[in-house]
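Moderator note: this is an archived Q&A kept for reference. The question asked for a predicted structure of one protein chain; the sequence and the answer are reproduced below.
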Amino acid sequence: MIYTMQGLENDHPIREMLFNLLPTEIPERADIAPEGADALGVVVEQAGAENRIRVCCVRGGKQICAEKRAPISDDAEQTKRVRTHALKSAIFEAVVPFLDTAPEWGSLTGVRPAKFARSFMEQGYTPAQVAKLMTETYHVSAARRALAIRSAGIAMDLKEKIRDNDISIYIGIPFCPSRCSYCSFVSHSIEKAGKLMEAYLDTLCGEIAHTGEILKQAGLRIVTIYIGGGTPTTLSAEQMDRLLHTVHQAFDLHALEEFTVEAGRPDTITREKLTVLKKYGVDRISINPQSMNDAVLEGIGRHHSAQDVLDRYQTAREVGFSAINMDTIAGLDGDTPESFARTIDMLLELNPENITVHTLAAKRGADQHDRAHNAQKQDDVRQMLEIASQKLTAAGYVPYYLYRQKFMAGGFENVGWCKIGYECKYNVYMMEELQTIVSLGAGGVTKLLGTDGRKIRRISNPKYPYEYNVSLQRINAGKQEILNWAQSRTALPN
């Protein structure tokens, strides 16, 4: 798809929306569209107290245009947001008539649709009013707006119980036994980076100890801890024992409500490691098959079988874990709606407390062709997600949080499902940005929430283990910002 643009610069939202609507085509900008070519023309002009937007799409010799107006306010960021939403909506209305089906999320492209819905509900909108807004203004389907509104309601319920000094802790272990083909996280295979693990653990324990002192000085309460990765159970039982012992020594855990460790890959799970987790009060783990189809598992580079998943799950129950999450991914190469349905059925037979249904997303840095290839799976992915929703609902699971990523197959979403009362609080706090998250380890980004619940200050750790391992002094110095932030909040008038 060729597009032209006049007026205010808006290249990114145009390309983003075109990929959302025409995922198998590669947007190309031109000064003038060639005569007779399929093209999108965008004009954004300021006229008095508003921006006027006109979008015309030409395909197969037919033209459809859409016009929007976006008010200009004294708040430059707000003006930009309103203009961007209006632009995306105009592109949507000009392009969708040429499509067989419209994207389920309409003109919404953000990663946090529940937060979007919640922002209006917290202004006093009823769920029905939010649903109407999402339909009429943002073109969201009935199923997706219901999903967003439900997740927003759960977030609001949890938000009411959060104290001003409550925080959560994230600890990252960026190592895996091997790298899965779909993975876009900063993680390193043991084969290539195993020699860094012991030094990494030394640095991490040093960061934990120092951060614990800072949190105590700041008077902050830790309510959830989440150890993720990578695959934390890549650590040996002895290394895990050392890490968790340090956590208990460094942090005041009297207010802790939830302690999660991603056991993740079944090929890293042993009874010994699970026993260590249980010993230190971990009450929620993830065992993530992604698929229960052995051919699919082999194709994506997972070094385990479906039977391994079943065996490790049984071991976890025997050790005493009563809250287990299991992940699946819709859209993996080699998977079909039929085989994906079998995966869901097998997980439901195990009866875990949580099942997270992800949609395959193109890796960060993937080129346009790879993204387009990924998006061609739209119809299959739609079927897979519908199958999951129907089967999980029938089994008594409910959706409780969701998020989207760029370049997801079909433009869909990731959804956490749970049995009633088994919501993972950390997932909601983190994704909906309800609470300060102090992040430890390589690639960690601490997010300090402002008193308005919106402004966020960030403290970033070095991204890669080899950088992280030699940066403890700098990392610890950066943690002083947590104390400064806490003191500034305390100093504010009530």
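Archived answer notes: The mean pLDDT is 91.
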